Amino acid sequence: MKGKRHTILFIHGFPMDSAMWRGQLFALSRWTRILPDLWGAGTATILPTAPEYSIADHAADLIRGLDDDDDGEVVVCGLSMGGYIVFELLRSFPGRIRAAILCNTKAAADSAEAKLARDDMAARVEREGMEALAAELVPKMLARTTLEHRPAVVRKLTAMIKRQPMHGVVRALRALRERPDSTPLLGTIRVPVLVIAGDDDQITPAAGMREMARAIPGAEFMLIADAGHVSPLEQPKAVNAVIDGFVARL
Ligand code: MLT
After folding, report:
1. For the chain, which terminal residue's Cβ has fewer other Cβ atoms within 10 angstroms, N or C?
2. Does residue 161's CB lie within 6 angstroms of at least one atom of ligand 1?
């Protein structure tokens, strides 16, 4: 419907929380925005003894949350781990998805080597804590130019990682490790899709994201300059313009 006030559900990445979307919250206020913290992240604290949960459990929980507010279709926008959840939403709840925005993410599952690296990271987090994890991840997550010239963004991301509860991070690593391969889904997607990549993303490089966009019928691909793995936080103006234009055309 033309002129509709679409709802955008923003799903954060790992090991972050919904604050990574703060630059979208205000700038995209002509749309209804929903920004949950996933279990074990930000304010959605869980007990250290909470049961295991999967990417599919996150997707089902988000749909349950929507049912209270909005029984129509939503635009889902996920970054990295949030993108894995978007794939699950498209697979399991296609009737609820009006369109999808995939930021800095990939469809493939973890390789055997990547699964071992998840186990190592979980053990390191338990041994050394969140400060050490932030020190390890921030240089990989941000573009070189962000690291050199945007100290406020570096501080924001570092503080966000440090405040995540350790047991939530460990559980998230197990869920990431066990996520399914979404490559077979790509060619079956029938809703409008926007793929957003950072030109200096070391974790999900732009070339792979361009390939992923080619595999999705009709998908748009946008490359954000001077952005790493957290493009909405690093280049909010450019990312907001792209998201706003995409949603306005729906
Ligand atoms: C993320 O930003 O959510 C992570 O890079 C996801 C992952 O580790 O696979």
Report:
1. N
2. no
Residues 31-78 have pLDDT tens digits of 999 999 999 999 888 877 888 899 999 999 999 988 655 568 999 999
Distance CA 47, CA 123 (A): 19
Give the pTM: 0.96
Amino acid at 182: S
d(CA 110, CA 104): 16
Residue nearest to atom 6 of ligand 1 (CA): 81
Between CA 200 and CA 179 the distance in angstroms is 25
Looking at ligand 1, which residue's alpha carbon is closest to its atom 4?
14
* pLDDT tens string 161-188: 999 999 999 999 999 999 999 999 999 9
CA distance 106 to 37: 21
What would the two tokens of residue 72 be? 């129509």
Is 1's pLDDT higher than 50? no
Token digits of residue 78: 């996920």
Dist CA 163 CA 100 (whole Å): 29
Instruction: Give dist(CA 129, CA 169) in Å, integer.
Output: 10
**For residues 129 and 165, what is the distance between their CA atoms, to the nearest angstrom?**
10
| Ligand 1 closest atom vs CA 13 | 3
Pairing of strands 7-11, 32-34: parallel
User: 244 C-alpha to center of ligand 1: Å?
Assistant: 24
Is a pLDDT exceeding 90 seen at residue 239? yes
